Amino acid sequence: MRRLAVILSMDVEGFTSLVEKDEAAALRSVEHAYRDLILPSIGDFGGEVFKTTGDGLLAEFASPVSAVKWTARFQRVLAADDFALGPKLRVRAGLVMGDIVVAGNDRFGDGVNVATRVQALSPPGGMAISRGVFEYLAGKTDLYFTDIGERALKGLSGAQRIWIWDPKIVGVTRPHAVATPDPATHPSIVVLPFDNLGGDPERDVFIEGMVEEITASLSRVREFLVIARHSAYAFRGSTQDVREIAEELGVRYLLEGSVRFAGARMRVSLRLVDGESALQIWSDRIEAQVADVFEVQDHIAELVSGALHPTIRQAEVERSRRKPPESLVAYDLVMRALPHLWAHRREENAQAIALVNQALAREPRDGRAAAIGAWAHGQQIAYHWSGDFSAERDAAHDLLDRTAGRIDDDPLALTAAATAMTLVDGDLDRANALIDRAIDIDVNHAWAWTRRGFARVYAGRTDEAFACFERAMRLSPRDPFSFNSMVGMGLAHFSAGRAAEAARWTRRALAEKPGMTWAFRDLSAFLGAAGDEEGAKAAFDVFCSQRQDVTEATVRDALHFMNPALLDAYVAGLATAGLACHSGREEGPSRAAGQGAVPYQSLVGEV
């Protein structure tokens, strides 16, 4: 008999080593897991074990959702289990939807073969699932799966799209509501009812719907508190001073707007106002065709959300700078650290680390501060700002350990931790899981889209990377960190074999961020690959003028997160610039600042 089913394959990681150490103890642990943890519960989820393989098993489920839920439950129970008579086990699990042939109590067919191969891609203690299983899960589980792309499976033709769940990453589930920012420290905003300048009452419903969408979109931004729509609606048509409204609602910022219609066209004017000073700190104008009501509302909500992210963040930075030192709290110190982090200059990065350390001294449990500090230490390695990569990795690991369970609902912190995991350990699977979580919480978080783009480039998924960088730049074109997406576009073009175009994007990023010298390494590699040996050498000289011991080995160590083909091509481009010749360069002032033979601006050139 043939049928479609969900097949689960599981086995114990490192079982051979456990047997070599103590065979009897290893077998006791396996027997305990099977007898006491698997058999009593698997039937409750519609599962049936049809084969055991010593340290593993194969089981069939009728429902993908039930199979995933039972597997997650088993992995959690196993992780918490303290079996005194044998070693602790770590199990890999693979689940696929496939065609099977039933022969008595056994099962055969493609489903079984694929499940055993998918299992090998599972993180220990987690699970890997195929597309067929993943597509059934939408809205039916609170588990977070990371897309790791198309993977070739041993002994099988073609490739399978695989998703993984790893409970170690962060926030295995969301057992509580998303945490609300503390109004005593975090910024708050109200979206006031927009003015209908045309006066046509039939347009009021459209405008109210758009304001509702903007409010809902901003509510997903975990970096600031958004006042509920019904509280804001009380001020419709009010001529009250914005400072009085801010005081009454307890908010720092107010978003005002007006809408004018001309036939099928509309113009939305927006203003962000400081509730304390009544000063306008941002404004913009959006024009659109009123062809599809919901599409227009969603589009404007996305643009507003993306624009207010960096605007309010920068306003909070300035606010923290105005506060006297004795009144600073951890939040203020983290806000002060951010501009130093995104400055992408060696001395500024050191200041970011110092400010984060101050924040953690005041609030040791501040997960966001720890994540940003880990990011800063990762930059010390990736940009050759440290002579001791090992010490930087140790410091980053210590800080990442502090984020456990403390950043689950903070997209900024999740993005920072993902960046650190990439730069420090090259762990793209874990980094992608955090980025996916950040975007799931706030789909308009430009920094998260930028980091997703880099992760895609490093993994060799260039086409997807372009889409991520383009979305980040569209969401937040005025973000002081937007130059990083330009750097990413350059690397993506290089990965796609377009070295000259890669150099153009990198020059654009350098023009956007004067004083940044690490990106001259990218420029040098791209120019070298494009055949411009003279330009490559000049760019590499600027990069090396502030760094010691730049060798092929240190470059490969710093950029170990790139896939092998990309890293080899990158190093080959630097070899054209004389990479090996720059070993042991003494630390000194940057010649890019005007002291050397090649002026900075001449290398940046026309963009």
UniProtKB/TrEMBL annotation:
<dbReference type="InterPro" id="IPR050697">
    <property type="entry name" value="Adenylyl/Guanylyl_Cyclase_3/4"/>
</dbReference>
<dbReference type="Pfam" id="PF13424">
    <property type="entry name" value="TPR_12"/>
</dbReference>
<keyword id="KW-0802">TPR repeat</keyword>
<dbReference type="GO" id="GO:0035556">
    <property type="term" value="P:intracellular signal transduction"/>
</dbReference>
<dbReference type="Pfam" id="PF00211">
    <property type="entry name" value="Guanylate_cyc"/>
</dbReference>
<dbReference type="InterPro" id="IPR011990">
    <property type="entry name" value="TPR-like_helical_dom_sf"/>
</dbReference>
<feature type="domain" description="Guanylate cyclase">
    <location>
        <begin position="6"/>
        <end position="119"/>
    </location>
</feature>
<dbReference type="InterPro" id="IPR019734">
    <property type="entry name" value="TPR_rpt"/>
</dbReference>
<dbReference type="GO" id="GO:0006171">
    <property type="term" value="P:cAMP biosynthetic process"/>
</dbReference>
<protein>
    <submittedName>
        <fullName>Adenylate cyclase</fullName>
    </submittedName>
</protein>
<dbReference type="InterPro" id="IPR001054">
    <property type="entry name" value="A/G_cyclase"/>
</dbReference>
<dbReference type="InterPro" id="IPR029787">
    <property type="entry name" value="Nucleotide_cyclase"/>
</dbReference>
<feature type="repeat" description="TPR">
    <location>
        <begin position="446"/>
        <end position="479"/>
    </location>
</feature>
<dbReference type="GO" id="GO:0004016">
    <property type="term" value="F:adenylate cyclase activity"/>
</dbReference>
